[in-house]
Amino acid sequence: MAVSLVTLLVTLVVVPLLAFLLLSSARKQRADGRRLPPSPPGLPLLGHLHLLGRLPHRALRSLAVAHGPVMLLRLGRVPTVVAPSPAAAEEAMKTRDLAFSGRPRLLMAERLLYGGRDVGFASYSEQCYMDSRVPKNFAESTRIASDTRTCVGFRFPHPCPGNTDGEYWRQARRVFALHLLAPRRVASFRSAREREVATLVARVRHATAAAASGGLSDALISYSKAIISRAAFGDGDYGLAGDKDGEKLRRVLDDFQELVMATPVREISPWLGWVDTLSGLEAKTRRTFEALDGLLERVIADHRRRRVCGRRQVLAADGEVDDHRDFVDVLLDVNEMDNESGLRLDTDNIKAIIMVYQWAMAELMNHPHSMRKLQDAIRRVTGAISGNVTEDHLDGMPYLKAVISETMRLHAPAALLIPRETTEDTELLGYHIPAHTRVVINAWAIGRDPAAWEHAEEFVPERFVTGGGGAAVDYYGKVGQDFRSVPFGAGRRGCPGAGFAAPVMELALANMLYRFDWAVAHGDGRRQGMPSVDMGEVFGLSVRLKAPFILVAKPCRFAVLTAKGRKLTANPSRQKSYRQRDLCLGPARIFAVSPGCRSRQTEPFAVSLGCGSRQTEALCCEPWIWHTANEGPLP
Ligand code: HEM
């Protein structure tokens, strides 16, 4: 009895105490006399994992308030430095970019992404596979991922000749930048984007007509997925076997997103690896890998078949021949490498775009003044004749860009970016950071740093518009220059897809606000005085809204105002179908009023006739005449 009591005492008190003291002394430890960043007390085995809670980006910010602008944490076995301020981010991603440009080996990423063969997770400085092992199936991918002697690198687009010091990543990144995401190629997907946004509008209209107000989220997912998969895979209608409405694929993609950043117990303590089998993580990982692998196989086989049959060529707007190739075509051109490509399904990018859209809508619903200002701007620039916002209109909408920039400042979709790893001994804000330390950049906290932003917690898009209504700060173009907001990261590992994502996000938001007015569906029991949309969060690879909000779309009615006696010139053939009225009614929202009503403006402009309601009231100013369509926006 006495022995077991002593054993118990030693187990419960002395061991944790010793471990605690060890960890505390590790805090003060100096590496070669150099100063390590401060670190809070941790626990044996877990280190500081338990401090992260369910919303790590918030927990890390609170820890930073207590421990300073750089912290050293131990997440399980992994030493991790956290950079929560613009100054730390700038030093890590600009001044010492090279030293901070590694990516850690993440077990799940390696297993799901063909041994980690993806640009985003590629090692920067490690060797490529010496034995050219390319996993052919899940079992092999798992074996390679867990072989700690193998340095998991890449051999795309050329087989790696040996120790090439990040050669794979460099090559793959070059292909991304030059061939896949170059401005010319992004522009070549314009018609696909505009086609998809028209489908999105039609789906939302249909959902509204059918009083199915919850369809927005589904429609948005289809929209982003369609654009990215059109660009990546072309026009083929790819899906999983027996999955007519795409539901199965959606679930697999969700699982993929959740799994790729999961930390299996095996990664923290290899001897507890069996817990992953018992918890079902193992089986889920296998299922997800196999489903996506099968899909990719089909896509690549299809493209190879098409290449044999000859390539389609179309004439681009500038008169040059556009070969209309998608990402797979380009990759196959760069290297005839079929399923050994570094191609990934880009589910994280799809999600990021949707997240920005949803956060923007949530913020706009909670800030009706900004919503109205943005709608006015969009409708003024687009007018009633176009029927749709096209990419030509976007340049004239600085406030739209400002709203998206402000949304990403407050809600960086990848709140902690993609983890990095130091490639050599280095420094951060005067602290020593040893080689192979994991680096977490808290983009969420940086965007809300009160030292960098006035009213940092508030949604104020105006801060991104220069000169009182002039041009918007060229935010996407500034990636890597302004470290007060870093939703796309920066430096050599920064996101090369910002230019691709920008028109996708802008076009969707602009069209949704042009064509519809929005209201939050009631009945959710929210008390008066509370924001319309609950901004609670759930953490994942991207931070999303905790409570999905349901919006009701009310299609807008437009009238076109022309100077008295003048005919509409924009679309004369349609003139006959408009009912011409000479009405003067009460106040309505009028766009382009200045100099508008009083001056003799001859250009038609859009007026919303009380979106969604029949009590149409519109201000009629002499000498204007109403031309109204009976319903819906003018074609
Ligand atoms: C709103 C949309 C998007 C957001 C917020 C976003 C964000 C990010 C972030 C935070 C990183 C890590 C940056 C770093 O470590 O400094 C990243 C990397 C990356 N992104 Fe994006 N991204 C988006 C869309 C896209 C799109 C549409 C593509 C491609 C079609 C793309 C391709 C990539 C690639 C290839 C990397 C890895 C770069 C490397 O490690 O060298 N992203 N993205």
UniProtKB/TrEMBL annotation:
Keyword GTP-binding found: no
Cofactor(s) required, per the database record: heme
Pfam families: p450
PROSITE patterns: CYTOCHROME_P450 (PS00086)
InterPro entries xrefs: Cyt_P450, Cyt_P450_CS, Cyt_P450_E_grp-I, Cyt_P450_sf
Keyword presence, Oxidoreductase: yes
Sorted UniProt keywords: Heme, Iron, Metal-binding, Monooxygenase, Oxidoreductase
GO terms, molecular function: heme binding; iron ion binding; monooxygenase activity; oxidoreductase activity, acting on paired donors, with incorporation or reduction of molecular oxygen
Chain residues that bind heme: 495
Family (UniProt): Belongs to the cytochrome P450 family.
Name by which UniProt lists this protein: Cytochrome P450
Species in which this protein is naturally found: Digitaria exilis
Record lineage: Eukaryota, Viridiplantae, Streptophyta, Embryophyta, Tracheophyta
